[in-house]
Amino acid sequence: MKQDHEPFEIALSVALERMAIQLRSLHRIARELEYILGDALQDRPHRPDPRLQSLDFLIQSLDGLTLFLEDLAPDLEPCMKVDLSVACRRIVLRDLQHALASGDVPDKTTASGDAEFFGLS
Which residue, 15, 17, 62, 92, is the most exposed by fewest CB within 10 angstroms? Predict the structure, then answer.
């Protein structure tokens, strides 16, 4: 079978650590959104939409997954390798793809590109 990519192997533990860093960043963003929504809804006379509980679930899940990966990665043997060229191929966000492949952490907490929600595009 012919490969259509150059293999790029790294230790599985390193890949998991990089994923944990990205999840931690998403956790911080979700937490900030929770504060923004809380402030925006504070003066509203009616009860907030119960679907907003999903944001709390998201925040707790991101935190839990991050802790899981952070605790799992150090226990893996360094000889366990993964090919990131395949794993990163389907990631649409170039910043995320780069961060996972290189380990570089962007200085920003906002996404690059145009906003495609809330009618801002």
Answer: 92
Question: What is the pLDDT averaged over residues 12-19?
Answer: 94
CA atoms 21, 68, 92, 36: torsion sign? negative
CA distance 24 to 105: 11
* pLDDT given at position 66: 95
User: Which two tokens mark 73?
Assistant: 């990665």
Both structure tokens of 111: 């996404």
Is 62 in contact with 26 (CB distance < 8 Å)?
yes
Q: Which of 71, 88, 81 is nearest to 20 (CA)?
A: 71
Q: Give the residue extent of every domain in the chain.
A: 9-102
Reported as a single tens digit per residue, the pLDDT across 82-120 is 998 888 888 999 999 999 988 887 665 555 555 555 555
28 in Cβ contact with 108 (< 8 Å): no
**pTM of whole model > 0.90?**
no
